[in-house]
Write a structure and sequence with these properties.
- Strands 3-9-10-11-8-4 form a 6-stranded mixed sheet, with no helix packed on it. It has a 3-stranded mixed sheet with strand order 6-5-7, covered by helices on one side. The protein has a two-stranded antiparallel ribbon with strand order 1-2.
- Strand 10 and strand 11 form a beta hairpin.
- The longest helix has 15 residues.
- The chain is built from 6 helices and 11 strands.
- The protein is globular and about 60 Å long.
Length: about 250
Protein backbone atom coordinates (compact mmCIF):
# COMPACT_ATOMS: atom_id res chain seq x y z
CA UNK A 1 0.00 0.00 0.00
CA UNK A 2 1.50 3.32 -1.08
CA UNK A 3 -1.36 5.72 -0.36
CA UNK A 4 -0.87 6.86 3.27
CA UNK A 5 -4.63 7.26 3.84
CA UNK A 6 -5.14 3.57 3.12
CA UNK A 7 -2.04 2.62 5.09
CA UNK A 8 -3.88 4.06 8.10
CA UNK A 9 -7.04 2.14 7.24
CA UNK A 10 -5.02 -1.08 6.94
CA UNK A 11 -3.53 -0.49 10.42
CA UNK A 12 -7.05 -0.07 11.80
CA UNK A 13 -8.04 -3.39 10.27
CA UNK A 14 -4.96 -5.54 10.75
CA UNK A 15 -3.57 -4.19 14.03
CA UNK A 16 -6.70 -2.96 15.82
CA UNK A 17 -9.08 -5.62 14.41
CA UNK A 18 -11.62 -3.07 13.19
CA UNK A 19 -14.10 -4.35 10.63
CA UNK A 20 -16.01 -2.55 7.91
CA UNK A 21 -18.74 -1.71 10.41
CA UNK A 22 -16.19 0.20 12.55
CA UNK A 23 -14.72 2.35 9.76
CA UNK A 24 -16.35 5.29 8.00
CA UNK A 25 -15.47 4.35 4.42
CA UNK A 26 -16.85 7.58 2.98
CA UNK A 27 -14.38 9.76 4.91
CA UNK A 28 -11.42 7.55 3.95
CA UNK A 29 -12.45 7.63 0.29
CA UNK A 30 -12.97 11.39 0.42
CA UNK A 31 -9.44 11.76 1.76
CA UNK A 32 -7.62 9.21 -0.35
CA UNK A 33 -9.47 8.08 -3.46
CA UNK A 34 -7.32 7.86 -6.56
CA UNK A 35 -9.12 10.52 -8.64
CA UNK A 36 -9.75 13.54 -6.40
CA UNK A 37 -8.95 12.54 -2.83
CA UNK A 38 -8.47 15.53 -0.55
CA UNK A 39 -4.90 14.45 0.13
CA UNK A 40 -4.13 16.16 -3.20
CA UNK A 41 -4.98 19.56 -1.68
CA UNK A 42 -2.25 20.16 0.94
CA UNK A 43 0.35 18.41 -1.21
CA UNK A 44 -0.84 20.25 -4.33
CA UNK A 45 -0.04 17.08 -6.24
CA UNK A 46 -1.84 14.14 -7.83
CA UNK A 47 -3.01 11.40 -5.47
CA UNK A 48 -0.92 8.86 -7.35
CA UNK A 49 2.21 10.90 -6.70
CA UNK A 50 1.74 11.00 -2.92
CA UNK A 51 3.42 7.70 -2.10
CA UNK A 52 4.76 6.52 1.23
CA UNK A 53 7.21 3.65 1.73
CA UNK A 54 8.67 2.68 5.11
CA UNK A 55 9.10 -0.09 7.65
CA UNK A 56 8.07 -0.25 11.28
CA UNK A 57 10.63 -2.65 12.81
CA UNK A 58 9.67 -2.02 16.45
CA UNK A 59 6.46 -2.55 18.40
CA UNK A 60 4.84 0.81 19.14
CA UNK A 61 1.41 2.05 20.15
CA UNK A 62 -0.91 1.98 17.12
CA UNK A 63 -2.39 5.35 18.01
CA UNK A 64 1.08 6.92 18.07
CA UNK A 65 1.86 5.28 14.73
CA UNK A 66 -1.33 6.63 13.12
CA UNK A 67 -0.77 10.10 14.58
CA UNK A 68 2.75 10.10 13.16
CA UNK A 69 1.44 9.39 9.67
CA UNK A 70 -1.33 11.98 10.11
CA UNK A 71 1.24 14.69 10.82
CA UNK A 72 2.87 13.88 7.50
CA UNK A 73 -0.38 14.06 5.50
CA UNK A 74 -2.16 17.02 7.18
CA UNK A 75 -4.89 14.78 8.59
CA UNK A 76 -6.77 13.72 11.72
CA UNK A 77 -8.14 10.29 12.58
CA UNK A 78 -10.69 10.03 15.38
CA UNK A 79 -13.65 8.00 16.61
CA UNK A 80 -16.87 9.79 15.72
CA UNK A 81 -20.05 9.98 17.75
CA UNK A 82 -21.35 6.83 16.05
CA UNK A 83 -18.22 4.92 17.10
CA UNK A 84 -16.66 4.75 13.63
CA UNK A 85 -13.10 5.72 12.74
CA UNK A 86 -13.04 8.78 10.48
CA UNK A 87 -10.35 10.81 8.76
CA UNK A 88 -10.26 14.46 7.65
CA UNK A 89 -7.52 16.05 5.57
CA UNK A 90 -6.77 19.77 5.73
CA UNK A 91 -7.14 21.97 2.69
CA UNK A 92 -4.97 24.97 1.85
CA UNK A 93 -6.58 28.37 2.55
CA UNK A 94 -6.74 29.04 -1.21
CA UNK A 95 -8.64 25.80 -1.97
CA UNK A 96 -12.38 25.61 -2.64
CA UNK A 97 -14.30 24.75 0.52
CA UNK A 98 -17.77 23.32 1.00
CA UNK A 99 -19.78 23.42 4.20
CA UNK A 100 -20.87 20.33 6.08
CA UNK A 101 -23.53 22.57 7.58
CA UNK A 102 -24.72 26.17 7.30
CA UNK A 103 -25.66 27.64 10.67
CA UNK A 104 -28.29 30.32 11.04
CA UNK A 105 -26.67 33.18 12.96
CA UNK A 106 -30.03 33.80 14.66
CA UNK A 107 -29.74 30.37 16.28
CA UNK A 108 -26.50 31.07 18.16
CA UNK A 109 -25.26 33.03 21.15
CA UNK A 110 -21.98 34.54 19.95
CA UNK A 111 -19.21 34.62 22.55
CA UNK A 112 -15.91 35.84 21.10
CA UNK A 113 -13.58 36.49 18.18
CA UNK A 114 -9.84 36.00 18.65
CA UNK A 115 -6.70 35.01 16.78
CA UNK A 116 -4.33 32.12 17.16
CA UNK A 117 -1.12 33.02 18.97
CA UNK A 118 2.04 34.05 17.18
CA UNK A 119 3.69 30.91 18.56
CA UNK A 120 1.38 28.81 16.35
CA UNK A 121 2.77 30.41 13.17
CA UNK A 122 5.37 28.49 11.18
CA UNK A 123 7.03 30.22 8.23
CA UNK A 124 10.38 28.41 7.96
CA UNK A 125 9.66 24.74 7.26
CA UNK A 126 12.23 21.95 7.05
CA UNK A 127 11.18 18.42 6.12
CA UNK A 128 13.65 15.64 6.84
CA UNK A 129 13.09 12.58 4.63
CA UNK A 130 14.74 9.60 2.95
CA UNK A 131 15.17 7.56 6.12
CA UNK A 132 18.15 5.17 6.29
CA UNK A 133 17.42 2.26 8.61
CA UNK A 134 21.06 1.28 8.87
CA UNK A 135 22.14 4.72 10.05
CA UNK A 136 18.84 5.35 11.88
CA UNK A 137 18.39 8.85 10.50
CA UNK A 138 16.91 10.83 7.63
CA UNK A 139 19.50 11.42 4.94
CA UNK A 140 17.91 14.32 3.03
CA UNK A 141 16.01 17.52 3.76
CA UNK A 142 14.18 20.35 2.02
CA UNK A 143 13.42 23.83 3.31
CA UNK A 144 10.96 26.55 2.38
CA UNK A 145 10.27 29.97 3.88
CA UNK A 146 7.66 32.68 3.47
CA UNK A 147 8.94 36.23 3.29
CA UNK A 148 5.52 37.84 3.76
CA UNK A 149 4.88 35.96 6.98
CA UNK A 150 8.45 36.61 8.09
CA UNK A 151 7.79 40.35 8.01
CA UNK A 152 8.81 41.99 4.74
CA UNK A 153 5.39 43.68 4.60
CA UNK A 154 3.43 45.58 7.22
CA UNK A 155 1.13 42.57 7.56
CA UNK A 156 3.98 40.22 8.35
CA UNK A 157 4.83 38.77 11.73
CA UNK A 158 8.44 39.99 11.68
CA UNK A 159 9.46 36.64 13.14
CA UNK A 160 11.20 33.57 11.79
CA UNK A 161 9.28 30.68 13.30
CA UNK A 162 10.72 27.30 12.40
CA UNK A 163 9.22 23.85 12.08
CA UNK A 164 11.32 20.70 11.67
CA UNK A 165 9.28 17.72 10.54
CA UNK A 166 10.54 14.16 10.21
CA UNK A 167 8.88 12.38 7.29
CA UNK A 168 10.22 8.87 7.42
CA UNK A 169 7.49 7.71 5.04
CA UNK A 170 8.74 9.97 2.24
CA UNK A 171 11.59 8.89 -0.01
CA UNK A 172 11.43 11.36 -2.92
CA UNK A 173 12.27 15.06 -2.97
CA UNK A 174 9.10 16.14 -4.81
CA UNK A 175 6.75 14.82 -2.13
CA UNK A 176 8.97 16.25 0.62
CA UNK A 177 9.01 19.64 -1.11
CA UNK A 178 5.24 19.65 -1.54
CA UNK A 179 4.81 18.67 2.10
CA UNK A 180 6.96 21.59 3.23
CA UNK A 181 5.07 23.96 0.94
CA UNK A 182 1.73 22.69 2.27
CA UNK A 183 2.76 23.28 5.87
CA UNK A 184 3.93 26.76 4.93
CA UNK A 185 0.66 27.61 3.19
CA UNK A 186 -1.46 26.46 6.14
CA UNK A 187 0.64 27.65 9.07
CA UNK A 188 2.31 30.85 7.87
CA UNK A 189 -0.43 33.15 9.18
CA UNK A 190 -2.43 33.64 12.35
CA UNK A 191 -6.02 32.38 12.11
CA UNK A 192 -9.31 33.84 13.29
CA UNK A 193 -11.07 31.83 16.00
CA UNK A 194 -14.74 32.16 16.90
CA UNK A 195 -16.63 30.72 19.86
CA UNK A 196 -20.39 30.47 20.27
CA UNK A 197 -23.17 28.55 22.00
CA UNK A 198 -26.19 27.00 20.32
CA UNK A 199 -29.11 26.73 22.79
CA UNK A 200 -30.91 24.14 20.67
CA UNK A 201 -29.97 20.54 19.75
CA UNK A 202 -30.66 21.06 16.04
CA UNK A 203 -26.91 21.24 15.30
CA UNK A 204 -25.81 18.47 17.66
CA UNK A 205 -24.89 16.23 14.74
CA UNK A 206 -21.82 18.39 14.09
CA UNK A 207 -18.40 16.93 14.90
CA UNK A 208 -14.81 18.11 15.16
CA UNK A 209 -13.22 18.92 11.77
CA UNK A 210 -16.63 19.67 10.21
CA UNK A 211 -16.62 22.77 8.02
CA UNK A 212 -19.31 25.32 8.78
CA UNK A 213 -20.45 28.66 7.42
CA UNK A 214 -23.30 30.99 8.38
CA UNK A 215 -26.34 32.70 6.94
CA UNK A 216 -28.03 35.79 8.37
CA UNK A 217 -24.68 36.92 9.80
CA UNK A 218 -24.93 40.20 11.76
CA UNK A 219 -23.41 42.76 9.37
CA UNK A 220 -22.20 44.88 12.29
CA UNK A 221 -20.01 42.02 13.54
CA UNK A 222 -16.62 42.17 11.82
CA UNK A 223 -13.84 39.60 11.64
CA UNK A 224 -10.93 41.84 12.64
CA UNK A 225 -12.28 44.66 10.52
CA UNK A 226 -13.39 42.48 7.59
CA UNK A 227 -17.00 41.77 6.66
CA UNK A 228 -18.17 38.19 6.86
CA UNK A 229 -18.34 36.89 3.29
CA UNK A 230 -19.37 33.24 3.24
CA UNK A 231 -16.24 32.44 5.24
CA UNK A 232 -15.58 28.83 6.24
CA UNK A 233 -14.60 27.64 9.70
CA UNK A 234 -13.47 24.23 10.93
CA UNK A 235 -14.75 23.00 14.27
CA UNK A 236 -11.84 22.29 16.62
CA UNK A 237 -13.84 21.76 19.80
CA UNK A 238 -17.47 20.92 20.46
CA UNK A 239 -19.18 20.21 23.77
CA UNK A 240 -22.73 18.82 23.63
CA UNK A 241 -25.67 18.52 25.99
CA UNK A 242 -29.21 17.35 25.32
CA UNK A 243 -30.19 21.01 25.03
CA UNK A 244 -27.50 22.22 22.62
CA UNK A 245 -23.78 22.62 22.19
CA UNK A 246 -20.80 24.96 22.50
CA UNK A 247 -18.45 25.30 19.54
CA UNK A 248 -14.97 26.64 18.94
CA UNK A 249 -13.98 26.96 15.29
CA UNK A 250 -11.03 28.28 13.27
CA UNK A 251 -11.23 30.12 9.95
CA UNK A 252 -9.71 27.94 7.24
CA UNK A 253 -10.30 29.71 3.94
CA UNK A 254 -8.31 32.67 2.66
Amino acid sequence: IENPVYIIEDVLRTELSMTSSHIDHASFDTAGNSTNGHITKPFNDAVGDVKFAFSQPKFINSRDFINRICKQIFSWVWLSGDGKAKIRTLLRPSDTFSADKTIDFNDIDFKSISRTGLNTVRNDITVNYNYDYGQDQNMSKVNTTDSTSAGTTVNGNNQTLKLNLDAEGVIDSTTATQMADGYKAIFKDRKIIIEFNIPTPRYNDLEITDHITFNNWDSSLKLYGADFNSDYFMITNISKTVEGCSIKAIKVDA
